[in-house]
Amino acid sequence: MVGVPDEQAPAARQAPAGGPLLSLALATMMDGVNAHSGAVYLLDADETVLEMAVAGGLPRAFAAPWERVGVNAPIPVAEALRSRRLVWVGGEEDMARRFPRVSVVLPYPFALAALPVATATRAYGAVFVTWPGSDHHELTDREREHLTAAGERLAVRLERAAEESRPVLPEADLLASPPAGSLAGTMGSVEAARMVARLPYGLCSLDLHGRITYANPAAAELIGVPAGRLQGTQLWATVPWLNDPVYEDRYRAALLSQHATSFVAVRPPGDWLSFRLYPSATGLSVRVSRARAVSEMRRAVPPPEDGPAPTRLVTISQVLSLAGALTEAVTVQDVVQLAAQEVVPALGGQALVLLGSRAGRLHVLGHHGYPDPHVVERFDGSPLSSPTPGAHALNSGVPAFFDSRAELERLYPIRHETPDGFAAWAYLPLIASGRPVGTCVLAYAEPHTFPADERAVLTSLGGLIALALERALLYDAKHQLAHGLQAALLPPSLPPLPGIDTAARYLPGTRGMDIGGDFYDVMPLEGQAAAVIGDVQGHNVTAAGLMGQIRTAVRAYTMVGQAPAEVMRSTNELLIDLGAELFVSCLYLRIDAARGRAVMARAGHPPPLLRRPDGKVRVLDLAGGPLLGIDGSATYPTTEVDLPPGSVLVLYTDGLVESPGVDIEDALAELGRRLAEAGDLPLDELADVMVGQGDTEERVDDVALMLLRTRGDGDI
Asked: What secondary structure letter does DSSP report for 383?
């Protein structure tokens, strides 16, 4: 790692490269654009995690969930690094729309700019700076140029330091904190302090960390704690009835937004007090007074002094951030990836394993961070009764924490035989809907103690991961069922046809269950061949089931010798008799390769493309009738088409040419261009070209494609 994100790190044995490089660069950026706060992140040695090296303007705890983040995390600094460009977030609504995870944890009005710290050849990290939301609605060209130039200068200095093997050592955060207890320094002159002491209402001065640097006698009396005990402490840490995350949240809101804010709290047994916070760049002033008629406010009273202390807000922030990440997981592998990118960096771990159970055996659902995957995968398939910590956590539902390898091996001697190279572990049972769904294993490279508050956080995260995993397991099961049904209803392979080469492709839509009603089939006949392609309305099991019935009916009508027009008419009547509420587009053809002729019937289906042996491509304008299932008396006229040897016929469903924002005529023209340029390729290669195999764009509809190339010999 280039830098170490630890504001409490001991003094370094080496002098920093060129002085406090990072903090000076951050101060320059903030001063040049009048930013309120900011932070510099550096890439770790593996270049997979961004670690906060220096923060400025606000306590580092405000960004606790993002102290260490994966480079693929959906937050502004990571996006700036990935895209190598400045990312601007103009306010609270913009943040909620583009980066909801950040917005959930910091739902305050502020604007943010994030930019990469990178040269043309190497990335070193990223920077963000913020402004109070109401004061800065748009980034000016001058500010953009200043930030970009400052980021580039910092990257060059880091590059030079790396070339000269000069380490960038830890630096102090940029926080203006007046010394606690310095009355004159905090309040000005002695006379001003005496004046404040005579006021009938309470006044407190807080630094950026929320520590009290001064409290007048009225404040101490109202709060019920001597002024000497308040000095240098945080209100929510010293006063039991203020130990509620809601009150600490108001302090955060005031500092980040730079807006005055307030809250009311009850001092036992029933005295309501009002707290008004006035922020500045150096801290806050707090006015304390008795609240008026708040008994009807119906606010829950905080726990009594001897009750359990609420969870601190920093912990809640981390949980909220990670919970937001896990809600985006769809498949089991999504859960593994998000947990690896979000949970592991946030908690200082280096590796993760998700274990599940099936048929009384342990199964490795996924893992991340292990140099040798066989170390993990050797546990796959082991009995749940095996004496391993992963199986025990899953069976008992009790988390286990091991500070060192010696502690782990003392309780589980079997681990002597399976070293994984790590030094501390947390085994978290994943309980969802009252039943165990797996175990999450977090591994640490160095011995790691697990204090009570961290164990509580990890256990809570285990519950969040369990819910995401349960949902993902259900999705994967449905996904496998859908694919199994789709595979059963489509032909596993195309049979050989007399005088015709064939190839087909089916691509499910990328939304929903990856199942739909697109179908195709070919049928060898005596001296001829028949082919059909169609699309049942809808993308669900009902559409797939109806598709299977339609395909079977077409095959049956073909085998009894019906002509193309009769096959379409009979299928239309069957669909209406079934009472289905779904409509079907269909294209059916009978080919005589020896004569080079094809007879086609169309029911509301996209027209096929024909590439002649000379390479010319045209769209076939076929006669046809309405969609199947609309009109029981409909007729379907046929069209005869010449297919000389070497002709390529392209049959497809509308998912290949219809997409949002694209004109269908343009899409057909592009399809024709591909066919003209690649039509001489072997059919399997041509099929991949036609469907754009390898394209990563989202498909809103299924795609079915069938290619027929005539040889003219009439042989199979």
From this structure: B
b/e burial code for range 414-450 (CB count within 10 A of at least 16 → b): ebeeeebebbbbbbbbbbbeeebbbbbbbbbeeebeb
CA distances from 12 to 3, 68, 160, 169, 618 (A): 12, 22, 20, 7, 74
For the chain, give percent helix, strand, coil, nearest 5.
Answer: 35, 25, 35
Contact 430, 466 (CB under 8 A): yes
* pLDDT tens column, 606-660: 999 999 999 999 999 898 899 999 998 899 999 999 999 999 999 999 888 887 7
CA distances from 664 to 276, 520, 659, 671 (A): 61, 22, 8, 10
Strands 500-507 and 435-444 turn out to be unpaired
pLDDT of residue 517: 74
Pair of tokens at residue 498:
């007399």
With contact defined as beta carbons under 8 Å apart, do 357 and 436 qualify? yes
DSSP 318: H
Question: What's the burial of 637, exposed, middle or buried (CB within 10 Å: 0-12/13-18/19+)?
Answer: middle
Among candidate residues 202, 282, 281, the one with its CA nearest the CA of residue 239: 202
pLDDT at residue 188, rounded to an integer = 47
Per-residue pLDDT at 6: 41
| pLDDT in the model for residue 341 | 77
Q: What does the radius of gyration of the chain's CA atoms come to, in whole angstroms?
A: 34
pLDDT in tens, 51-79: 999 998 888 877 777 888 888 888 999 99
User: Which DSSP string corresponds to 212-258?
Assistant: EEEE-HHHHHHHTS-HHHHTTSBHHHHSGGG--HHHHHHHHHHHHH-
Rounded to whole angstroms, the Cα distance separating 505 from 493 reads 11
Q: What is the pLDDT of residue 564?
A: 94
- Pairwise CA distance, residues 506 & 701, whole Å: 11
Name the residue among 395, 403, 389, 402 with its Cα closest to residue 353: 389
Name the stretches of the chain with pLDDT < 50: 1-16, 177-188, 293-314, 513, 694-696
Q: Closest Cα to residue 317, out of 59, 91, 94?
A: 59
Tokens standing for residue 132:
């109070």
Q: In this prediction, what percent of the chain has a pLDDT beyond 90?
A: 28
The pLDDT assigned to 135 comes to 57
Please tell me the predicted confidence (pLDDT) of residue 539: 65
First to last CA, the chain: 65
Report which residue type is found at 541. Answer: V
Helix residue spans in 34-116 (DSSP H)? 76-83, 92-98, 100-105
DSSP element (H, E) containing 541:
helix 541-559
Rounded to whole angstroms, the Cα distance separating 248 from 82 reads 34
Query: 494 — phi, psi (to 5°)?
Result: -95, 130
pLDDT confidence of residue 136: 59
**Do the beta carbons of residue 610 and residue 707 sit within 8 Å?**
no
